[in-house]
Design the sequence.
């Protein structure tokens, strides 16, 4: 065996590369790193922090639109009519149905909900905002009324494919 | 049998499998925010069913073309049955042949899926048990150990699922959970068996088989309620993993058939080359013979007759 190695070296005039034992090769390191990454990803999927956070935000959205609907319902009970500012539309998410922010300078093409403020009271009804959706004047929540007397408030920016929408019959 | 691949080649293949798994897991993590994934399951399921049918047919074709590996027959039967079950399940989900089938999808789900997956897992396991290792003698002990582990694990899973409160909130899915967990274990044991067999060093098909088994395990993991993801996402990702598993195996079979024909072609080419060599040698021998004969005639003519030559020889002696 030794002779054959010597012969090859002599013929080729190139010394055979000695493999240093006990050292990790690049491919072995890559394999170990891949296994670690795989385990980490499994752990991430078991905990899934993004899902937990998205669910928490969705719960806030549900609470927000529920409170908006309660305020509209209270207003309707007080005055007996659905306010004209709420646009008539069969679909909730439509152009012109987005609720305007409280204190916004411009509510053009948005639904101005200032009618919910009682003229005799100093208390200001503040419109809640979507936790992720960022807009200058809009809240990210939409409102509409249909011909049957239903008022619908929805949160189209709900995450993880969840549909958040509440409707209430006002008559 | 000659070792076809070096350790470096095998390491590269292992990294390729691991990287694909990592990409799939990343996809699984971000898939919750994708809208299109919601309506994705049925089409992927249909494609997986079609692929399963192709795999079954190709495996049977591979077995009957060159009857050298019994595991191809098992895989072929397994995939044809699974494809039939999958397509039946899809037809029930679509509700288009309601007059033809007396059962509804809700009545058989998830039991039909569980049956199909356990059956396929068992086919894979049996294919490993019957596979002949050309390069080494597979000991009977190895098979017995893996079968014993499987039996113990099955009993353990059944006892834990029934007598503990781990799945108390999913009582209607207990059978499905047991079935899927056992199927997952079967896949894991089959994967261990194939890795221990070191067939990946000798056959390229083993690489595709290990790749496919890895995704079959992923499919089982996603089908079980152990990950913190939504139910629809669980089913969808499990279906996608199953689809990848089938696709990879289909590629493996096609490559295996290609390799088989390629080797036949190479043999044919070698045969033609040797025939040519033989013809050339024959021609040269004939030429040499003709030259010798001519020389002999020339000598005969110069000496006069055969008698004269003989006399000449005797005189010399």
Sequence:
């Amino acid at each position: 065996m030794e002779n054959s190695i010597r012969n090859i070296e002599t013929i080729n005039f190139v010394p055979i590369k000695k493999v240093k034992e006990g050292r990790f090769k690049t491919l072995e390191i890559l394999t170990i790193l891949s296994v670690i990454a795989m385990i980490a990803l499994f752990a991430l999927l078991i905990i899934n922090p993004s899902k937990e956070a998205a669910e928490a935000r969705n719960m806030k959205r549900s609470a927000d639109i529920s409170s908006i609907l309660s305020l509209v319902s209270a207003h309707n009970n007080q005055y007996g009519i659905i306010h004209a500012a709420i646009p008539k539309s069969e679909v909730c998410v439509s152009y012109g149905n987005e609720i305007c922010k409280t204190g916004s300078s411009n509510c053009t093409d948005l639904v101005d909900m200032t009618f919910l403020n009682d003229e005799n009271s100093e208390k200001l009804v503040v419109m809640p905002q979507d936790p992720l959706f960022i807009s200058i004047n809009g809240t990210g929540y939409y409102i509409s009324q249909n011909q049957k007397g239903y008022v619908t408030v929805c949160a189209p920016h709900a995450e993880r494919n969840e549909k958040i929408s509440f409707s209430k019959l006002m008559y | 049998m000659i070792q076809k691949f070096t350790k470096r080649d095998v390491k590269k293949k292992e990294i390729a499998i691991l990287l694909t798994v990592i990409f799939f897991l990343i996809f699984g993590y971000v898939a919750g925010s994708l809208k299109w994934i919601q309506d994705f399951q049925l089409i992927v399921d249909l494609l997986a069913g079609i692929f399963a049918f192709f795999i079954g047919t190709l495996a049977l074709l591979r077995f009957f073309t060159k009857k050298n590996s019994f595991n191809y027959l098992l895989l072929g039967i397994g995939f044809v049955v699974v494809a039939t079950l999958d397509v039946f399940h899809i037809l029930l989900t679509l509700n288009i042949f309601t007059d033809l089938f007396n059962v509804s999808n809700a009545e058989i789900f998830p039991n039909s899926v569980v049956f199909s997956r356990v059956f396929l897992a068992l086919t894979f396991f049996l294919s490993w048990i019957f596979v002949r290792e050309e390069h080494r003698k597979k000991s009977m002990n190895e098979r017995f150990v893996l079968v014993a582990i499987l039996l113990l694990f099955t009993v353990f899973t059944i006892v834990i699922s029934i007598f503990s409160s781990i799945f108390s909130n999913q009582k209607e899915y207990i059978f499905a959970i047991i079935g899927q967990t056992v199927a997952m274990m079967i896949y894991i044991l089959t994967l261990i068996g194939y890795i221990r067999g070191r067939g990946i060093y000798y056959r390229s098909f083993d690489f595709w088989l290990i790749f496919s088994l890895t995704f079959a395990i992923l499919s089982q993991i996603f089908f079980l309620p152990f990950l913190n993801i939504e139910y629809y996402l669980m089913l969808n990702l499990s279906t996608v993993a199953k689809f990848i598993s089938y696709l990879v195996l289909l590629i493996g079979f096609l490559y295996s058939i290609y390799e088989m024909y390629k080797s036949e072609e190479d043999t044919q080419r070698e045969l033609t080359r040797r025939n040519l060599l033989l013809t050339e040698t024959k021609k040269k021998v004939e030429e040499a013979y003709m030259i010798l004969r001519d020389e002999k005639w020339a000598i005969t003519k110069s000496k006069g007759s055969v008698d004269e030559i003989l006399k000449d020889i005797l005189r010399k002696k």
